Structure formats: C-alpha cells, structure tokens
Amino acid sequence: MDVFSDLIRGVRAHGSLFGSTTLSPPWALHFVDGAPLTLCTVIDGAGWLVPEGRPPEWLRARETIVVRGPGTFTFVDEVGTTAEPIACGEDCATPEQGGTRHRLGWHDPGGDAGGGCGDGGNGPGVGRGATTLIVGAYPVRGEISRRLLDALPVILRADDGGAGDAVLDHLAAEVAVDTPGQQVVLDRLLDWMLVCTLREWFDRPGGERPAWWAAQRDPVVGDALRLLHAEPAAPWTVAALAERTGVSRSTLAKRFAELVGEPPLTYLTRWRMTLAADLLVEREDATVADVARTVGYSDPFGFSVAFKRVRGANPTEFRGSHRPSPAR
Predict the structure, then answer these.
(1) Mean pLDDT across the stretch 186-201?
(2) Residue (of 93, 59, 91) closest to 76 by Cα position
C-alpha cells in the first residue's frame, strides 16, 4: 500500500451529494454545507467559483476545482451577478426546495444544454449560453484522511487536457440519463476524478507537495514507506527496514530523514497513532489493549503513553471526545 492510497481510502463518494445542474444566466448557487472536500467541474459553458474569503476563480469547460472546507463557496455566471443566490446543500437536494435544479445524481434534460458558453478560451464574459456544472461533496471521516486534507490548499485546480478528461466524458454521459445503479456509477466516477485531480496537482511543476508524495518516488525511501504502510504492526527497527530495502542502516536513516523530514521510526509511531485514533472511534467494542495490539504494541501502557504524546490525549479521553453524533 502506498502512502497516497492509504490516505485517500477514507475519502469515498458513497451516495454523497452529487449535482448535475444546467444553468442559464444569470445564476448564483451558494453551496452552504462546507463539506471537507467538494469537487466542481464544468462539462460545458463556464462560470465563476467564489470561495468564502478568497479571490474568485474562473472555471471553463472541462476544468476542475476542488474546494477544501469548512468554508462555503458560490458558483455564479458573473462576479457581481444580479441573480439571487440559491442555497444548495443536503436540504435542497430536490427541485421542490428552493426551486433549484440540483439533486442527487439527477440531470434536467429540459435545461438549455445546447450552445454552452463557448468562450473558446477567450476568457470571462464571452458567450452567454447554458453551463452544465457537476458537483460532488465528499464527507471525509477519520484521522487517516485528515492527513491528506492537511496537505491540500483551500483551492486546488486542474485545467483541461489532463488525465481527468476521460472521466469527464463518462460523467457527461452518465448524468444525461436516469438508469438503475446510476448513483453507484457516479460515486465511482467521482472517486476516479478526485484521484486524477489530486495526482495532477501534486505533480505540477514547482508545486509545494507534501514530503511523503515526493518520497514515494525514491527507490529506497519509497520502498520503506510502502513497507511501513503495508505492515504497520510489524516489530520494525531501522536495521530491519534497511535490510528489507536493500541498503545500509545509515543510508536509509539519512535518506528517509532528508526526504520525509523525520526518522523512520518517528514516522512509524505517528502513523500507528493515526491508525489507532480511527480504530478507537470506529470499533466501539475494542478495548485499548485490542487497539494497541492491532497497531503493534504488546503493552497497552506503552501504547497509551505513545498515543498521548502524539495525539495530546490518552486513548480513553480521545475516544470519549470523538464519539459519533447520534443519527438524526
């Protein structure tokens, strides 16, 4: 398991809010939920994405922007539009609420899908046809996925022409019909689109990528990271890790610290505590000793000391403060 795959595994679309909205100007959709991650992509047309407290972003056909919450954002035909904002979120996911055409996996075939804004790359304000916007809001649960969110900016964009283009073609075809199993297909396409977008953003020239992203490509440190993520509970030592990666102990220690920013066993401890944090919340019937063994500690006391040092609270306190809210 590579680091990115581990971190993104909890970021999954699963019946999450999905909108395919065909808009004729003027329009203003205010996305009020402040979801941890929201993916916005334009199939055809164009518009402005206006994040809370940040400059507007011009979004053209086949471009994608990912917004990191908890801030909200608005999608408008023009900055300063005369349209009255429509609040979009889970509570307005049907056309009957607020008059919005924004719903789970739903496309309005009566919308003016023809023509598009057709700006041809000439910039804002050119063309006034319909715009088709696809939005997927991701619930992000757990401390594992939180490490991925912490590596992302508030606004992350991918221009057209990248690996996500093939996914856009599938999305455009799927939202244009109403067939059995559509939500499942849309969920998986959203996941695919998000992975493509994040990979392209991390790989962009001159970007400030997290240390673990670049380290994955190193032939030595990348192998070490994969081993730590595949076998986090193993009784690792630097010597054992070096033997498995085929280099000397000193070489591994030096290269790992240079590329990742901390020694291998420090990284392992933080990763184990991240795994433990999610297990404490998700497995209510598991004792602290059970969780300790799962992440590689035979001694619950030693585990509790390490957990408090890394997380700032002992396992019992952490579990009590992170209990899921009762379902409404």
Answers:
(1) 84
(2) 59
